Amino acid sequence: MSSAVGLAGLTLFSDPSSAAKKPESLPPQVGDRFQITKGPLKGELLRPGLLKIGEAPVIGFPFAPEDNVLRRKNRLNRLLMIELDPADMEDETRERSANGVLVYSAICTHRGCTIASWKAEEQHFRCHCHLSEFAPLDNARPLTGPAKKPLAMVPATVDEEGFVVATAEFTRKPGAAKK
Ligand code: FES
Q1: Residue 106 is part of a domain; what is its CATH number?
Q2: Whose CA is nearest to atom 1 of ligand 1?
Q3: pLDDT at residue 10 above 50?
């Protein structure tokens, strides 16, 4: 079941300065796909079934298919992409997932470190800087440590070609922003 529906009522972040930015620096846009930029799957576009359920997230950036542009000239666009069991997700998280694939900002909401750890047993992201942990099954809300805000998320669905595609911009400003 795709998540193209069920997004009514979300407060979605929209950057008013976006118009002045180059495509490779823009935040994720509606219709963007996601390209993996590290590891054995480097270069692949994200789609359900590419990742193993419950395994560590892969790193990537939004990809504009019409312009053939990878939006990686903006550190705040670095993403954690993971596939988890939709049955384990909170309802809103499931609606924002693309058949179980979740796309989150990799930038910690405490002081902006890049999140790089995965606690497989608990299914938590962990920031190594001050050990904040976040729950990807529940909109990446903070669980422990000094971070008080959830990670930004890119709501997504699956397009007609089977790729994960953004249905909205970030749910909040990524990183340590106040909003
Ligand atoms: S920057 Fe992530 S916990 Fe402090």
Answers
A1: 2.102.10.10
A2: 111
A3: no
Q: What is the pLDDT of residues 75-88, one digit of tens each?
A: 999 999 999 999 99
CB of residue 132 inside a 6 A radius of ligand 1: yes
Q: Decide whether any atom of ligand 1 lies within 6 Å of the 137 Cβ.
A: no
Number of separate domains in the chain: 1
- How far is Cα 82 from Cα 63, in angstroms, rounded to an integer? 17
The model's pLDDT over 109-123, given as tens digits with 9 standing for 90+, comes to 999 999 999 999 999
Q: Ligand 1: distance of its center to the CA of 158 in Å?
A: 32
Query: Does 158 reside within a domain?
Result: yes
Distance 175 CA to ligand 1 centre (A): 10
Provide the pLDDT for residue 21: 81
96 within a domain of the structure (yes/no): yes
Residue 42 inside a domain? The answer is yes
Is the model's pLDDT at 177 over the cut of 80? no
What's the one-letter identity of residue 22? K
Selection from 140, 165, 171, 156 nearest residue 34 by Cα: 165
Whether residue 12 is contained in a domain is answered as: no
Q: Residue 152, Cβ neighbours under 10 Å: how many?
A: 26
The number of the ligand 1 atom at minimal distance from the alpha carbon of 145 is 3
Residue 127 beta carbon below 6 angstroms from any ligand 1 atom: yes
Q: Please enumerate in sequence order all residues whose Cβ is within 8 A of that of 73, keeping only pairs 6 or more positions apart, or say none.
A: 22, 24, 25
